[in-house]
Design a protein that fits this description.
The protein has 15 helices and 16 strands. The protein is of the alpha+beta class. The chain has two domains: 244 residues, Bira Bifunctional Protein, Domain 2 (BirA Bifunctional Protein, domain 2, 2-Layer Sandwich), CATH 3.30.930.10; 86 residues, Anticodon-binding domain (Rossmann fold, 3-Layer(aba) Sandwich). It has an eight-stranded mixed sheet, sandwiched between helices. Strand 15 and strand 16 form a beta hairpin. The chain is elongated and about 95 Å long. Bound molecules: histidyl-adenosine monophosphate. Histidyl-adenosine monophosphate (HAM) binds next to strand 6, strand 10, strand 11 and helix 11.
């Protein structure tokens, strides 16, 4: 029986992987510019972390986690997202005591959600995320959003839309919650089972329901923006002002709720507006989570971050017809004719590589013509053609594959000849 890859996962094969590497490098470069440092946390955590961190009433926790017992009967979960783990590590390693605040971290790695796979939605996907923990300055909210936008722009994406909302502080949310309950209570029987449960558990979640999206009460639901207290309102205004200062345009959407429970104040998503992009247009999501560090056992500390998946980013690049300038070609291919030349090519190849020239040769005893074909297939910039006769004379022919020009070069000058031209 042939094995098949599990549903909702994918192999990233050579040729495709270069795009991933390019994107990951861009992310790392940008984080260096903004002074976010990489953090690597385990791929699995104690399930309790996500129950507490992400929230028991969320779809992620209720329906989408890969949870299992280990051999000692402990409940373990493959991480569905990176914020809870990052905050766990922040608390566990007492990063709140660091003299440099906020602590600015980023991660790139696989996340796992048992969702119904479709275009742009996988069961294993790679998130690039950042978290700035330890500052409640609205300027950091603007920094986080601008990093995400600059990342997309640096890759060439143009058809982007930022949707932003404020979920307010605890007090504002409490008032809003009450208003939501009163709004839906009388007709909650018309909503799905999940929403009925959500009514008292977390009525904000109702607004995020996929099944009841079209219900008339959805459009008339009380807007959080009408319930923001002075402090929350002026915080949000300041974030928007900084975005204006940075020339970042956005749309305020009071219905933007986000699917995870830890958010308060700023919540945002970046969507693709490219034609032909699939049904799921959200590329990136993030927001502020001022209570999360405390919830996970640390001192009251505010935080904000975002995450985006490389899979959806690639889909957006495809939708906008953007080709990344990934380097696939190699500098040099060695084609040989004759046994002695073949033997000689082994150390010549090593010489080239030692000098930082990417190079390859034939390992299948191919005829010279087939070796030339291989050189073209690999998009070699130069092909060194070496026969026993040339070897005798201490020379090789170097062919510039783009112009077709060929030149005889002394073996001792080969490396410097190529280095000058590459
Ligand atoms: P999220 O909205 O659940 O937020 O996910 C963020 C991003 O991850 C999405 O916008 C999407 O690009 C990607 N994503 C989510 N699920 C899938 C999937 N099944 N397949 C492919 N891509 C997916 C979070 O995860 C928060 N931790 C973000 C955050 C960081 N908030 C504050 N800090």
């Amino acid at each position: 029986m042939a094995f098949q890859i599990p549903r909702g996962t994918q192999d990233i094969l050579p040729n495709e992987v270069e795009r991933w590497q390019y994107i990951e490098e861009k992310a790392k470069d940008l984080c260096r510019l903004y002074q976010y440092k990489e953090i690597r946390t385990p791929i699995f955590e104690h399930t309790e972390l996500f129950l507490r961190g992400v929230g028991e009433s969320t779809d992620v926790v209720q329906k989408e986690m890969y949870t299992f017992e280990d051999r000692k009967g402990r409940s373990i979960t493959l991480r569905p997202e990176g914020t809870a783990s990052t905050v766990r590590s922040f608390v566990e390693n007492k990063m709140y005591a660091s003299p440099t605040q906020p602590v600015k971290l980023y991660y790139i790695g696989p996340m796992f959600r048992y969702e119904r796979p479709q275009s742009g939605r996988y069961r294993q996907f790679v998130q690039f995320g950042i978290e700035a923990i330890g500052s409640s300055d609205p300027a950091i909210d603007a920094e986080v959003i601008s990093l995400a936008m600059n990342f997309y722009r640096s890759l060439g994406l143009q058809k982007l839309k930022i949707v932003i909302n404020s979920l307010g502080d605890q007090e504002s949310r409490k008032m809003h919650r009450q208003a939501l309950i009163s709004h839906f209570e009388g007709r909650i029987g018309e909503f799905c089972e999940d929403c009925q449960k959500r009514l008292h558990q977390n009525p904000l979640r109702i607004l995020d329901c996929k099944k009841d999206r079209a219900h008339e009460l959805m459009n008339t639901a009380p807007s959080i923006l009408d319930y923001l207290n002075e402090e929350s309102k002026s915080y949000f205004d300041k974030v928007l002002q900084y975005l204006d200062d940075l020339g970042i345009s956005y749309e305020v959407d009071p219905n933007l709720v986000r699917g995870l429970d830890y958010y308060n104040h700023t919540a945002f998503e970046i969507m693709s507006g490219a034609e032909g992009f699939g049904a799921i247009t959200t590329l990136c999501g993030g927001g502020r989570y001022n209570g999360l560090v405390e919830e996970i056992g640390g001192p009251a500390t505010s935080g904000i971050g975002f995450a985006l998946s490389i899979e959806r980013l690639l889909a957006a690049l495809d939708a906008e017809g953007i080709e990344l300038p990934v380097q696939k070609e190699i500098d040099c291919y060695i084609a040989t004719l004759g046994e002695r030349a073949k033997d000689y090519s082994v150390s010549l190849l090593q010489n080239l590589r030692d000098q930082g020239i990417s190079a390859d040769k034939d390992y299948e005893n191919k005829k010279i013509k087939a070796q030339f074909k291989a050189a073209s297939r690999l998009e070699a910039k130069y092909t060194i053609v070496l026969g026993d006769d040339e070897l005798e004379k201490g020379v090789a022919n170097v062919k510039d594959m783009s112009s077709g020009d060929q030149q005889e070069v002394g073996l001792e000058n080969l490396v410097s000849f190529l280095k000058e031209r590459l």
